[in-house]
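Is this the right way to post structure tokens for a design question? Let me know if I should format differently. Anyway, here goes:
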């Protein structure tokens, strides 16, 4: 979580919603970070009750895009790769992380969700503080500038995915994401007026 004490603002940081970019930009203009960066809002609130007086913000990303980004992250990030390999091997699959398809990953979701609950969890789970404003990931720069009030410093996009491990987004993957992340689709429609 990031916060600005004087302005009583905070930003919750769900994985795969531009959190590295937010960290660099907001810390560069005087915001502070509570470690760990990725934790559910109520955990921070339990430790820091004064956050209840802050206006909370959270970026929301198209659930399918976020799911694909999370899988690519698991395939390429050194800290996640070993655990991901263990799940793949435990399922009896012989594919490399790079060649593992999104459909195969969908079949592994019960295990992956247990090993990577924050990365693969619902975005709506991160918008639980009262009065949390949902920010549209599709308008990232405009949104982060609006809430920070900074219109001059550069917003440098961090942690962009490469093509390593990309697969085909099939109808099976789309259907799975729609069902598994149904609460996120409902949140997007209700709070952003968007249907993905």
């Amino acid at each position: 979580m990031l916060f600005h004490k004087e302005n009583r603002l905070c930003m919750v940081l769900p994985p795969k919603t531009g959190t590295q970019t937010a960290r660099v930009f907001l810390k560069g203009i005087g915001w502070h970070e509570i470690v760990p960066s990725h934790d559910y809002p109520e955990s921070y609130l339990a430790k820091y009750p004064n956050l209840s007086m802050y206006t909370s913000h959270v970026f929301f990303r198209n659930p399918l895009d976020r799911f694909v980004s999370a899988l690519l992250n698991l395939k390429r990030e050194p800290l996640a790769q070993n655990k991901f390999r263990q799940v793949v091997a435990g399922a009896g699959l012989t594919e490399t992380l790079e060649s593992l398809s999104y459909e195969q990953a969908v079949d592994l979701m019960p295990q992956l969700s247990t090993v990577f609950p924050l990365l693969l969890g619902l975005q709506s789970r991160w918008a639980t503080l009262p009065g949390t404003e949902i920010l549209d990931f599709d308008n990232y720069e405009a949104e982060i500038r609006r809430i920070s009030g900074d219109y001059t410093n550069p917003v440098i996009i961090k942690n962009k995915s490469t093509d390593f491990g990309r697969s085909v987004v099939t109808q099976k993957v789309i259907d799975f994401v729609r069902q598994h992340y149904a609460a996120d689709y409902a949140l997007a429609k209700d709070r952003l007026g968007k249907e993905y």
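Format looks fine. Someone answered above. Worth noting: Residues 64 and 175 are 10 Å apart (CA to CA). The radius of gyration is 17 Å.
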